[in-house]
Amino acid sequence: MNKLEAFGHVAALAIRGDLVFPTSVNAALRVQLALDDPDCPMEDAIKLVLAEPQLAARTVSLSNSAMFNRTGGPDITNVRNAIMRVGYHNLYALAAAMVVRAFGSKITDPGLRAKAEQLWQHTIHVACLARIIAREVTGVNPDTALFAAIVHEVGSFYLLSRADEFPGLLEPDPENWQTASEEIITREVLKKLGIPAEVAEAIESLRSGMLQIPPDTLLDTLLLANHFAPVASPLAPEQQQAPHEDSVMDLFIDAEKREQMLEEAEADASAMAAALLV
Questions:
Q1: Looking at residue 23, what is its pLDDT?
Q2: Whole-number Å distance between alpha carbons of 209 and 220
Q3: Three-point CA angle 175, 180, 186, nearest 5°
Q4: 64, 73, 81, 260: least CB-packed within 10 angstroms?
Q5: pLDDT, tens digit, for every residue of 36-92?
Q6: What's the domain count of the chain?
Q7: What is the CATH number of the domain that holds 195?
Q8: Is 130 among the domain residues?
Q9: pLDDT band of 108, cuts 50, 70, 90
Q10: Is 194 exposed, middle or buried, given 0-12, 13-18 or 19+ CB atoms closer than 10 A?
Q11: Do the domain assignments include residue 232?
């Protein structure tokens, strides 16, 4: 089975709703869907997190990281205080990160696992950059930007998780014939995961999206974050780059501020990676 046939087959399965998710994804999804309710009581949120030991440990770890404890306050040792420091939106994003990360758990081929790890590092860096770019440049809600960036490669993670069964998915494709199928797969995975429409639309527009001037949308935020991320996606060796990104950054942020943003994003990426390894 060649690449085009493999993509066509997986896309056809996706359209029918036949998406194969690791068991651990379902548990994280339950937490994510519950936390999507802004009126979810604190006690319910605590129970949900405590019911998933990995999520509980990672929430506490993330709350003590430099990303959420910039003043160097005392370490938090319980879920309640961790949730209060991190906030519902970031807890929601953390649950989404567990969902995305879980797709790599069923990969057995060493080469595919290496690609999944690089894709994860790319995702973390884009997420941390998107949060800062939203705050400093585009004016988008930083929590939304963080969440959107965490799930922006979920379609690629899904494809990697199926590549053991369909090796043709990773064959060279110089003419990019699989684009339509890849877009279908991404759209169906986003739908299955219940990703909000605003976020899904921005993610689906990344491949062909153009940067606005001035940049002020979620799509602009993701385009800029992808452009400046120091780790590239292994499934997109030739990163798509929206035009004028460097000049736009120069217009809105001076060189010193830009360097500070990149340094902050690198520190946050390290903190997030460490927290999610718990």
A1: 57
A2: 8
A3: 120
A4: 73
A5: 676 778 888 788 788 777 778 888 888 888 778 877 788 898 888 888 888 877 787
A6: 1
A7: 1.10.3210
A8: yes
A9: confident
A10: exposed
A11: yes
pLDDT value, residue 241:
47
CA 2/CA 16 separation, integer angstroms: 22
Phi then psi dihedrals of residue 136, to 5 deg: -100, -25
* Helices 218-228, 142-151: inter-axial angle, 10-degree rounding: 60
> How far apart (Å, rounded) are the C-alpha atoms in residues 186 and 11?
9
DSSP secondary structure string for all residues of the chain: --HHHHHHHHHHHHHTT-----HHHHHHHHHHHHHT-TT--HHHHHHHHHTSHHHHHHHHHHHTSTTT-TT--PPP-SHHHHHHHH-HHHHHHHHHHHHHHHTTTT---HHHHHHHHHHHHHHHHHHHHHHHHIIIII---HHHHHHHHHHTTHHHHHHHHHTTT-GGGGS--TT-TTHHHHHHHHHHHHHHTT--HHHHHHHHTTTT----SS--SHHHHHHHHHHH-SS--TT-SS----TTHHHHHHHHS-HHHHHHHHHHHHHHHHHHHHHTT-
Question: What amino acid is encoded at 105 in this protein?
Answer: S
What is the reported pLDDT for 42?
A: 80
Residue 176's identity, in one-letter code, is N
Locate tokens 């999520």: which residue? 55
How far is 80 from 148, CA to CA, in rounded Å?
Answer: 25
Q: Are 180 and 214 in contact (CB under 8 A)?
A: no
**What span, in angstroms and rounded, lies between the C-alpha atoms of 146 and 148?**
6
Our CA dihedral for 101, 105, 111, 114, rounded to 10 degrees, sits at 30
Flag whether 89 is in a domain. Answer: no
CA quadruple 41, 36, 28, 20: dihedral sign: positive
